[in-house]
Sequence to fold (301 residues):
Amino acid sequence: MSDAAPRRCGYVALIGAPNVGKSTLLNTLVGAKVSIVSPKVQTTRRRIVGIAIVGEAQLIFVDTPGIFEPKRRLERAMVAAAWSGAEDADIVLLLVDATRPRDEATRAIVARLKNARRRAVLALNKIDLVPRPTLLEIAQRYAEDGIFDPVFMLSGLTGDGVDDLKSYLARAVPAGPWLYPEDQLSDLPQRLIAAEVTREQIFLQLHQELPYNSTVETEKWEERDDGSVKIEQTIFVMRPGQKAIVLGEGGRQIKRIGERARAELERMLDRRVHLFLFVRVKEDWTEDRERYEAMGLEYTS
Ligand code: GDP
Ligand code: MG
Fold:
């Protein structure tokens, strides 16, 4: 028999309105880039699992797409994925942007938690932007909901307060064996992560409606003898005009998207990457079963 503290392991669902900082916090918690971060809303379409080891505990985080009022099929699939992540989890962690603490989307989530009789841990995020007395008022207001305990104040961006949250979670998850190998940060297949990296560049470099009307798939992943990897990806857009925007004049735009994505992939994979991007017009890709499977979402939400 060993004297070591018993191992603990559990799922933590990170929920919150779009843009409250879920992906940023996840990256800080896990200490590596596993979920893309963007200043625009709803860049995360699927559940992404990041894993942190804290002492004897393994924390498995489920990053959820923003929970909002779904209209189109794609939105419904995203919301269904988000809630199923929350229902399966040992701990629900509601992240709130302290600069807009009771916006409509957050109120809707709180109502749904109450309906489900689900208790949750509350984390007020972005405390680097909000004065202390205001934070205390926000925490007081949330205490009145009667479902949040404990409450943390943190900044996913600066890391302030994140360790307190981490050590709480490590004590709160159930005792049990670890479910993932120690060195694993994410169970998201590499080709999905690679597609996210390119999609992040589309978000960062193109504006308005385009990012929401496009999706990226990794079609080919070829390990080469010299240690490099050849990756082929297709960017799906809905209209020929959008294809023209992604390509840019003389192909300059797609070249820049490819260059940045490749640099990021080389950093993440720690080896040389040959990235080939193709653009395809597929008017109805948001109604296409195959695209959903590629994104790890349920088509029939
Ligand atoms: P998500 O939609 O909830 O996953 O939010 P993201 O993680 O993509 O973050 C949305 C925006 O908020 C990005 O511009 C982040 O840089 C910013 N952000 C996230 N956390 C913090 C924080 O603690 N402080 C500040 N000042 N900005 C933050
Ligand atoms: Mg996100």
Observations:
- Residues 16, 18-24, 37-39, 44, 66, 125-126, 128-129, 155-157 surround guanosine-5'-diphosphate (ligand 1) (CB under 6 Å).
- Residues 252-269 form the longest helix (18 residues).
